[in-house]
Amino acid sequence: MPLHQYHFNASISSSSSTFLAPPSAFASSSRTQNFSLPLRNSEICRCVATPQEAKTPTGASLLPVSPSFFSSSAIMYLRIAYKTSVSRNANIGKLQAGYLFPEVARRRNAHKEKYPDAQVISLGIGDTTEPIPDVITSSMSKHIFQKCQALSTLEGYSGYGAEQGEKSLRAAIRSTFYADLGINDDDIFVSDGAKCDISRLQVVFGSDVTMAVQDPSYPAYVDSSVIMGQTGQFQKDVEKYANIEYMNCTPVNGFFPDLSKSARTDIIFFCSPNNPTGAAATREQLTRLVQFAKDNGSIIVYDSAYAMYMSDDNPRSIFEIPGAREVAIETSSFSKYAGFTGVRLGWTVVPKELLFSDGFPVARDFNRVVCTCFNGASNIAQAGGLACLSPEGLKAMREVIGFYKENTEIIVDTFNSLGFKVYGGRNAPYVWVHFPGRSSWEVFAEILEKTHVVTTPGSGFGPGGEGFVRVSAFGHRANVLEACKRFRQLYK
Ligand SMILES: Cc1ncc(COP(=O)(O)O)c(C=O)c1O
């Protein structure tokens, strides 16, 4: 019988104290119940970053499992009935905790359980909240209707599309975002999102490269690097993985790293406008970054997922910088432009001029990985992408972005009026609030406990984020206003 058809006989216990901490006195202090579930092995482990086996008083092994699987905030433990002989990937074992945003969600759920009547407002994980503009969804519906009609006929049926994306969409992305920047349609690979492409790029680079990130940074860069085996162990004293160059980005250096102090690495992940700090690099700073990469023979992976949020006259693409095509890849997304976080559509630009040390084009290896690990974005999502890039779609996207930018102003004004130092916001949907001398998780917990508002602790983005909290502008207006009212009450 295949493994997924087994019913695991499990004893279940919960611990809501410390994330993934095994229960110390299992029998006496924890709720227990017997149950039988049709679980797949993969589901048991999916969200567990560092499973630590616990023991029952009789010595039986217990495995911590995803709380979200049980729709509960508590950590659950399954009695292990059977183990395979396959060793766990040691690189995944290096990861410290759950991916940041599931952990924030877990704490939000725990809070909701604790205060079932509270109106919890989420300005935390940075998911979009406003409806996808009608001009885009109508086009998608039309496409689905036509496609479905065709798919049910012999003549109209089609299966896989081009792994790299539909020609018309690649052309529309180029002409909308890269006109006059020397990028060709076939340099653009349409995907199911920037996060997925970040991991595919890591597969292209392999485990032998060194990498640098802005500190703080979007967690997918570091976590995918750890999973690929590019790093050493996590060093608890400095809160960093060995073998990653953390390029400190703070108010002191204007959130742009001091490149004279940055060690050479093969790969440099750089995000502008930045998640989480909201900082956007200037033309002059990006020119220095490109020169730094060129001097060191490095490749920049430039994440422009928030470029359309830019108000200042900073580059929206790394390819606005002369010479960037020889040293940079750019990844981007429809997620935060069109509310496509669930639809899933993004793209990555790999110029033909970008070569490995042996002269082999990076684009050809990326193409190879895309064809092996991915089979192209859904044609329905791509129809939505095309609609986004029509004149009406672009106008509608700008309106939604404008709405979130107004939210940003409300949040910035609130914290400014309370005397906090506030960064970001102007070029990104994130507000980076400084709480000097305080732990980010402590401030996150204080805000959640006292205002029922979920934010994101800055230290979750790297040690450079300690002492900051990120407040996302993705929220309904009424919720943002209510959250700000509560912030004013808490910090008046
Ligand atoms: C900087 C950055 N890059 C990439 C992503 C992921 O984008 P996608 O939804 O296209 O995977 C996010 C999402 O929050 C992000 O903040």
TrEMBL record:
This is Aminotransferase class I/classII large domain-containing protein. It comes from Linum tenue. Pfam families: Aminotran_1_2. Gene3D superfamilies: Aspartate Aminotransferase, domain 1, Type I PLP-dependent aspartate aminotransferase-like (Major domain). Keywords: Aminotransferase, Pyridoxal phosphate, Transferase. Signal peptide: none annotated. HAMAP family: DapL_aminotrans_1. GO terms for molecular function: pyridoxal phosphate binding; transaminase activity. Belongs to the class-I pyridoxal-phosphate-dependent aminotransferase family. LL-diaminopimelate aminotransferase subfamily. Its cofactor is pyridoxal 5'-phosphate. The lineage of its organism: Eukaryota, Viridiplantae, Streptophyta, Embryophyta, Tracheophyta. Residues 119-487 form the Aminotransferase class I/classII large domain. GO terms for biological process: systemic acquired resistance, salicylic acid mediated signaling pathway.
